[in-house]
Amino acid sequence: MRQLLGFMAVLIVITVGWLALGPRQNSSTSVKLTFHAVMGGEPLVYDQFVYSNPGGEGTFRIRDFRFYLSNLSLRGGDDTFAEPDSYHLLRFDNADKTHSISLTDVPLRTVETVRFLIGVDPEANSSIEARGDLDPNSQMAWNWEVGYKFVVFEGGLQIGEDVTPLVYHVGFSENAREVVFTLPPDILADGGEEVHLNVDVGGLFEGTTQINMEALSSVKFNRVDAEALANNYSTMIAPAF
Amino acid sequence: MRRVLLSLTAAAIVAVAGWVLWERARAPVATPIADFSAPFVFGRFSVPPDNPLTEESFILGRHLFYDPMLSGNNEVSCATCHVQALAFTDGRAKSPTLSGGELDFSSMSLANLLWGQERFFWDGRAASLEEQALLPIQHPDEMGQNLDNLIAELQASGIYRKMFRRAYGSVSAENTAKALATFMRMLISSESKYDKYLRGEVRLTAQEEHGRKLFMAHPDTKVSLRGGNCIDCHSQFLTSGFRDALDGFSNNGLDPDEALPPGLMAVTGNPAHKGFFKVPTLRNIAVTAPYMHDGRFETLEDVMDHYNDGIVVSDTLSPLILEADNAPDNGQGTVGLRMTPEEMQAIIAFLHTLTDEAFLTNPNFSDPFHGDT
């Protein structure tokens, strides 16, 4: 009996100690990443010839803009949280021209670094398994032999009376681009859990290579053209604090 | 001996009576469709939580689908315009109206509705199959039925009362829609030559394989890739329109701006959707002529000719169609794919691999009021 009491006392001490000093079970964080599609700092406008050809004549309109964001991971202190099945199709054809990714129960006390790919990792890009927003029967699938389009931009370029179709479909595993940024220390303090990011759609055509849409009105399977756009889009996303 | 027999009979009668009463009194317990499996490559699908797939619902839906009682004059059933042997189309450019005219649209094929675009009708005006199912019944030109009258007629039928009770508990318009939706969801076509090819069971002929490759490719003259561009609207495995948002609708260059019908714009109010129509499945396409929302093309050759050099440019025409061209030089006033006759024939050969004889003759999908089943 005595032994049992002693044993129970030890157990209680251990339990209380664990609760007080051990890793806190409720130290999870919620993070919401909200991406804003912008052109020249303003929300994206669809279907109107209001934007100037970055590298030449004419004005263009956007009918469709979307891209895959994958392998999202967060880092705080020495710990990293990698979202499982992390494949998000970001599209902005809504009233706010935004797309939000909400992560709940992130087992990190703080989030210092955010990391993801624009595009799809090679393993998933060569698979027909539907996971996350990957869907081989979707508009983003080229076909199972080629993989997914990573970034899609479609529209038209108007020069005078003539309208030229614009089709930029960028894929191929080598064109996935990693984006990493650090959060200011207080951004997630006091219950503020939303991080805003700007997606500069025009960045697709400016940056390392300035695109004249008249000369290069489509990019699909030409690897050199695709890489040029990939280098451009690698810097199109930036946090807006 | 006689006594024993008598008591046994009495006991049996009591047991049967008790069982009948119990059967009548208990709440219906519908049986989930057990051997339901879908091809992996078809991907995700969803069934409304308040209308799970059950055997009882399917049986009821199948009877309703084939029953002319659903129309005002008791002469037209769903199956009048959706004939199984024609992959649930009717072989006409436009279906007839009750008054002898013709409807605005061609009868749509019903296959693999669990997957792909989740809006229904050519202009996408129904957001679910449950919503879709009651509209032709009530349409004055299609079946011309008043729902209250229909429910009264179904209530008057002991057989329907029993089927409704087993499937849903009671006769109602909502349950009529649910049962029809279940029947349509189970119209699954996955035994075509293409399906067998995807499962590694058969090989395609050289011509079919050539057609498949063209089907799956957007042409790019810059890298000498030739393509029929079909996959830009028809997904690679389902061959239907895309599921996500309104991706399963497109303007495929049939009419100029002046004559462009509203299409999806009538539903969304967005001028960018003018002339957009639902991209249909190409499953069983060889038996669903004539083609397009208004049945304007009689043959698959006509369809290929349209995409090859007959595209009519309008403001909302898909840039993917306008841009897709297999010839590097500028065309002489025509817009289209500019493939060779052999390439077009190859695509047509591939389209024939989408015919599923097992689907077209599946006894479970046939008229339950006739035949052996």
Summed up, what is this model?
Chain A has about 240 residues and is mostly beta strands. Chain A is built from three helices and 15 strands.
Walkthrough of the structure:
The complex is a heterodimer of chains A (241) and B (373). Chain A is 15% helix and 42% strand. Chain A is mainly β and 241 residues long. The mean pLDDT of chain A is 91. Chain B is mostly helical and 373 residues long. Chain B folds into 2 domains: 174 residues, Cytochrome c-like domain (Cytochrome Bc1 Complex, Chain D, domain 2, Orthogonal Bundle); 163 residues, Orthogonal Bundle (Cytochrome Bc1 Complex, Chain D, domain 2). Helices cover 36% and strands 1% of the residues of chain B. Chain B contains 14 helices and 2 strands, in the order H-H-H-H-H-H-H-H-H-E-H-E-H-H-H-H. Chain B has a two-stranded antiparallel sheet. The model of chain B has no long low-confidence stretch (mean pLDDT 94). Chains A and B meet through strand 9, strand 10 and strand 11 of A and helix 12 of B.
Determine and state the CATH class of the largest domain in chain B: Mainly Alpha
Tell me the structural class of chain B.
mainly alpha
* Gap from first CA to last CA of chain B: 44 Å
Order of helices and strands of chain B: HHHHHHHHHEHEHHHH
**What is the number of domains of chain A?**
1
Q: Considering DSSP H and I runs of 4 or more, what fraction of the residues of chain B is helical?
A: 25-40%
Radius of gyration of chain B: 24 Å
Count of alpha/pi helices of chain A: 3
The termini of chain A sit apart by 63 Å
CATH homology-level superfamily of the largest domain in chain B:
Cytochrome c-like domain
Oligomer: heterodimer
Low-confidence stretches of chain B: none
Give the total of beta strands of chain B: 2
Q: Helical percent range of chain A?
A: 10-25%
How many domains of chain B, as an integer? 2
CATH architecture of the largest domain in chain B: Orthogonal Bundle
CATH fold field value of the largest domain in chain B: Cytochrome Bc1 Complex, Chain D, domain 2
Mean pLDDT across residues of chain A: 91
Taking the sheet with the most strands of chain B, its summary is: 2 strands, antiparallel
Question: Main sheet of chain A?
Answer: 10 strands, mixed
Q: Rg of chain A to the nearest angstrom?
A: 23 Å
